[in-house]
Amino acid sequence: MSPRPTSEQLSALQARIAKANTDRDQRKAEAIEAIETQFWTAIAAEINGENAYFGIQKDIADALGVTRETIRTQLKKYAPQA
User: How distant is the alpha carbon of residue 36 from its chain centre?
Assistant: First the structure.
């Protein structure tokens, strides 16, 4: 077995692990943002598309199990051009 690392080696290991963890968290946040943007842009396209009808937002809210207010705020956040 290898001997225990020195305090400098241990500190360097902890710094590398902390950086890897931070990088992972950042990539995860970016991926979630991209997925949410794609999803809510698709919802906006349904609401504003040629097959839209009066009450479509409520029907979408019911299908997702959320309120119309949630639909509105998520569209504002992730699909602001809608």
Answer: 5
